[in-house]
Every structure is written in structure tokens, then in C-alpha cells.
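Here we describe the complex-level prediction in full. Unlike the single-chain runs in Section 2.1, the two entities below were treated as one system.
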Amino acid sequence: MSRPDADILERARAGDRDAIGALLEPELDRVYATCRRMVGNADDAAELAQDSVVRAIRGIGSYDGRSAFSTWLTRVTINTCLSWHRARGRRSAIRAASLRDAGSFPDASVSGRPGTEPERTDGVQRGEPRVARVEAALDQLNPEHRAVLVLRDVREMDYEAIGAALDLPLGTVKSRISRARGALRRLLEAEEADESHGHERGDGSAMES
Amino acid sequence: MTTPNGKLQPGDLSDPLSGLDGRVVEAMLAAVESSDDAGFASALEAITDPRARAVAESMRSDRDALRGLETGRAPAGLLAAAIDRALDGDLADNLESIDTSGVAALEAGAASSLSGPPVSGVEAYREPVVARIWRRRREVGLMAAAVLVFVSGMAIVAGVRSIGSISRSIGPVASETDGTAGVGAGADETTDSVAIADARPSESPIDPPVVSESTPEQASAWLALMPDPGTGEVLDSVFDAAPLLGSDRIVFYARSGSTTNTAAVMDVLTAQRIGVDHAFGIRSELVEDRLGAFGIPEPTQPVIASAEGGLDTIVLAARSGWVAEVRRTPAALAALRRRLEDAGLTVEIRVLPEPVEVGADLTVTADEVLWWSGPASRWQRTAPVPIVIDSLPDR
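The structure predicted for the assembly as a whole is:
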């Protein structure tokens, strides 16, 4: 759906359940896919997808029709996911600080995300080491890099749509994608190097800063 | 450091793009972003630096892996749950938290009264029914006699009335073109249409028919002629309006082509008490000095109404106002607006630049709490919402 029918949009703004359903139903799988890859596990993704849809419904009055509806909805979804990451980061920092104060573990491991790694299942369950590695590396990217790669590669959006969804100029979109690809490559090469050298390494120690 | 075949070494990976010329990096990324494999291959040909070629190939492989990640489908029921949350409450995200302690305490109290210690050590004794009747046989006898007299009287009255109705059946028949027939003709409001018609004073079959000359079509046409006050911000979205409930900055402004329609629908809404089945109700009429307090210009501009087969007349809209009590949810606002629109009114939700108190007392009554059958978490406070209606007189 590029631009929704004006009547449906008006009825959705007026709180008509059927109109809201008609507006959002075609977008639902894309919303979920975005959340799924932004947070790395199915449970959080389902919760975030619902939060995103709730935010979209409540904010439907702010959709001015200048961009495609799916782009606007993607923006709402990405913002919801980024808020979740920020809140999660704060919770992790508080938890790490409290554990450090209690002397539970040395400072060196605090830089990661102790005990908060999302459960990764897809690639591992399918027995595809390459897919599992890429999935794991994506989970370790910072949320801004992750967002551009999810939109570009998972959602297969073009630069203009990504710029509209993230409120970024075209040049910034391109440079952020290139930096995100570089960061992903760095994580994967580090993982491969570890494997080849047989080093033991703790979880999350190679997380992108 | 690279191997002779260009394979990256771990030490090089602080940034795979570091040390590469900017134009080479640009060419690499263009290659990685190629839409198809042929485009990628030809773009790669143009890169002569073996290290850059290796990085580009790896990045392309990463991209393909990302595109191959499964994402699954949205769980069933996600949309319905989200719509319920957005429409029916959970506004605590945007508003102050909803205080449910009163209801929760009541529920807790009710539960404890069932399971708590007895207030007396005396065991309850229930007297058998036959024993009670025998003990009070004199009162029971008197009551039975009174009932017999009452039933006999009613039977006599009914007999006299039936004779009267037979003699009247040859009199004038009530018209079926009552102007209120179109009121509340909403798609799903059939029962409410009946309710509106029923809300009018009951008419005897021999009374002259009360027929409004203003059909719904005429009312609608007249409505279009009414000037738009055009002041204040109009909110299209109930989701934008709902967070403002309780701030005294929301007013419903409606225009009606028929005072009869207006009176009929407001009568019904006034009889409707907010509760489990209704998200809103009318608490009172708006006091007269508040009618002009919302910045909506008085309807002083006359409207020329053309009557079918008659003379054009100049009419002036009359203003009236009510205070609705509305649950603080988008769904409640939507229901109120739809109810008025179904009655043929055009409705706008306007935002006032400054709060205007309407002087309604919305204290939660014991009656409301006692009849609340939902869980405490679903209890929502209400807010007063003024409704200002400019109505054209019927013809």
C-alpha cells in the first residue's frame, strides 16, 4: 500500500476498527520482520511489533500522506525498536553496575551484555553455520547500524525509502550502510579468526561499540 | 596486512575499509549493492586492488546471508490485540497512571469479606417458610384480599378501554412520515433508531400525527448552508484527542439541520448512563453562560432555506449545549462522535487553546463502582466533554 485510500484513513483516524484493520493488515508481516531482525528473538519481536502497531494507531493523525504509508509505519517501528534497545541498554548498565558493586564479576566482562544475550535459534536450528554466524553478528551490531542493514537487506528497501524511514539524508544513508557493512564484516572476520586460532572467548566480548 | 591472494588477516580487521582509497571504497560498495550477480561481477572487475576485491566479495556474501535470514510471519491475533490496546485504553503510556486503587481495594475487601473471620459467633437461623406464614397469618390474609381487589379493578378498567378502542378505530390514522424516522439511521444502530423514536412523548392513536416537515434530506441540505465557524484546531483523529481528555481542552462542536433530531438524540443520550455497556453518557445541559466560552462564534448568520413548493425563508440556528461524561479512551470518543453523526449531525472535535471548565461533577458514585463487573485493571476514569450544537429549526 503506497498511499492509503482517503476514506479508510479518515475512518481509521476516527477510531473505526475495520478501517484500522484494513490499513494495517497488509503491513503486519513487514512490521514483524523488522522487529524480528532488530531484536533477535521471536518473543521480544512479537511484543515490539504489537507496541509498534499501537503507536501507529495512536499516531495515525500525524501521518500526512507525503510518504508511503509503509515507510511511515517502518519509521514508527524502527523508533519503537530503537527505544527498546535504549531502555535495554540502560537496564543492562544498571544491572552490570549493581553486579560490579557486588563484586560478582570483573570489570573486563562488563563491556559485553552479561546474561542478556537474546536466544538465537533460526540459523542454528537450521544447521546453517554461515547463516547462524551472520545472525549472531547482526545481533551484536549497534542498533543504528543494525537498523540500516535490516531495512536494506532484510526489508530490501531502497535508499530513498530508508532515508524517509530514518529521517536521514541520502548521503548519510549510504555512508551508514557502508559503515554497518564494515562493522558486520569486522565481527564476522573476528569470529572466523577466533575459530581458526582455536581461541576460547567469552560471550559478547567482540560486540561492536 | 594481506596474504598474497588478498585474504584478510585478523590483524587487519580493526576496520576492513581502513587504508583503502576513497574511490576504491566507493567502487566496492557500489559493487556490493548491485542488484544482481552480473552487475556485481562487472563492478568487481573494475576493482584492481586484491584486498578491496576480497572485502567486496565478503561483504556481498554477508549481504546475501542477511537476505536469506528467515523472519517468519506476524503471530495470529497481534493486530486485534493492538487495536484493542489502542482503542480501549492503556492510555497510561501518555497520561498519568490510572488510579485503580479504589476498585482494587473494593475487590480486595469483597474477597476478604468472603474469606475473613466471622463477625459474630452466633450461628444464623432461618425460620421455615410455613412457620413464618402461620405466625403472620393475619397480615398474609389482608395482603391477599388487597391483591384480589386490585386485580379485579384492573380487569374492569381494561374492559372499558377495549370498548373505547373499537369505537375509535374508524378515526384518523397516524402518518408514517414522521421526520424522526431517519434519526439514528446508522449501519449498526437499528435498535438505537427505535430507541430515539421511543424517546419522544407517547402519542395516543387518536391524537393528530406529529409530522416534522424537515426530512433528513432537507436537514442535510440545510446543514451544508450553515457557515463554518472556522476557529480552533480541529482534530481528525480520536487518538490525538484522547490524551487531552481531562484537560478541559476538548469540545465537541456539532451542527444539526433539525432541532427535532438534536433534541431526540440528546434525550436518548441523556437517558444513557455511563457504565459497563456505555463508554459515555450525558451528565447535564451546559449552563447558558458556558455556551459561548469555547471560542466558537455565535450562529448569527441567517440561512436561506428553500422549501419545496413554498416560499424561501430565512432561519437562524439556535445553540444548545450539554456536558458528556466520557471514558478516557479513543474508543469512547469515537463512539460519541459516531452516535451524533448517525443522528445526522456533522461533528468536529476541537482543541481549545486554554482549558475551559464546564463545572461538571464527575465524582465516581458508589453505584458505578458497585455495578462495575470488569476487572480493576479495566476501570477507566471519565472526563467531562462539552458538546455545543447549532441546530436549524424544523420547517
